[in-house]
Design a protein that fits this description.
about 350 residues, alpha/beta, TIM Barrel, 2 domains, 15 helices, globular
Length: about 350
């Protein structure tokens, strides 16, 4: 599948998520069926200052096929300079974050605050486009608030400056992650747009994703929170019956260890491994029987070996007792605090 000049393996893509979408998680999702991925949002200023932690976020694994690097910032010159640096790490495209609603980003003029001054966007896009040799893309929201829905306007400006495609989260900035994504508007924009549109918002289960795939005008869909609860969602969304996942607790255990190996490639800090593994495991096992007690054991664990022992005991125990089906309402959102 192609969006503009950018090729992907399928129309289901992984959304950029802060503190999650470094290369261990991105590559894991590619291996589990994601057609492409985008990095977590990365500060243009951190890149330009040579911040070591920020530069670490730019790293791309040699096995990643279809990854974009997402940058955020408010200054056109700083964004253009950082885009040139980011390009050296080998992404397929550079993406501008124009959707983040977090106050510390918005208050400085970045993220979704860029939607407030559309008169400046053409020059903003032009400067970044001239700084790189690879495609430029953007991820936006429907507008700043209910009274300033301007996704169509932004898409048209982007098209005029050579942007390849636009991903749209179906909420305004003031909505944050509350309420429901406005898919009626997303479908309308996709129908009218001169650019390929990626729809994003509330596709947090395989049944919802498949239902949207069957009727959408969007060229692709972007999943954020869903893969955290169901890391197999990119595969199960294509099943004849997406409510009947064939993946067992043993399969979850296998990918948890795959993720750990990727984390070790990314960082040699044991503390990072512990924090990331606890966080990811808790999300992955959401909905299994006895997860509350297990979660308590996990967060009480101070060593990675202890975390892995508890996880193995829990998931293999579910397998042995034939209690491997998750019990979740697939229509209800997961992680309402954000992420996709």
């Amino acid at each position: 599948m192609k969006l503009g000049s950018v090729s992907f393996d399928s129309p289901l893509l992984l959304a950029p998520m802060s503190a999650i979408c470094h290369f261990p998680f991105r590559l894991l999702m590619e291996e589990l069926g994601a057609g492409g991925t985008v990095s977590e949002l990365i500060s243009c200023h951190g890149i330009n200052y040579g911040n070591e932690k920020t530069r670490q976020m730019l790293r791309i694994h040699p096995k990643e096929r279809n990854v974009g690097i997402q940058l955020f910032g408010e200054d056109p010159l700083a964004m253009a300079k950082s885009a040139a640096v980011a390009q050296e790490y080998g992404p397929k495209f550079i993406d501008i974050n124009m959707g983040c609603p977090v106050r510390k980003v918005v208050s400085k003029g970045g993220g979704s605050a860029l939607l407030k001054d559309t008169k400046s966007l053409a020059q903003f896009f032009k400067g970044m486009k001239e700084a790189i040799d690879i495609p430029l893309t953007i991820k936006i929201r429907t507008g700043w608030d209910h009274d300033s829905i301007n996704a169509n306007e932004v898409v048209n400006i982007a098209e005029g400056e050579g942007v390849e495609f636009v991903a749209i989260h179906g909420r305004t900035r003031t909505q944050q992650y509350k309420g429901s994504a406005n898919w009626d508007l997303l479908e309308e924009v996709a129908t009218q747009s001169p650019l390929p549109i990626i729809g994003n918002g509330d596709l947090h289960s395989a049944p919802l994703t498949q239902e949207r795939m069957k009727k959408t005008n969007c060229h692709a869909l972007m999943l954020g929170r869903g893969p955290l609860r169901d890391p197999f969602i990119f595969l199960t969304s294509y099943l004849d019956d997406p409510t009947q996942s064939p993946f067992s607790p043993k399969d979850f255990l296998e990918i948890i260890f795959v993720y750990l190996e990727l984390l070790r490639d990314y960082s040699d800090m044991e503390r990072t491994h512990l924090i990331q593994m606890r966080k990811m495991i808790v999300w992955f096992v959401a909905g299994f029987d006895g997860v509350s007690e297990f979660r308590g054991k996990l967060f009480a664990s101070k060593e990675l070996t202890e975390v892995l022992d508890h996880t193995q005991e829990f998931l293999l125990g579910l397998e042995e007792k034939d209690r491997g089906r998750k019990k979740v309402d697939l229509q209800k959102p997961f992680m309402m605090g954000g992420h996709g």
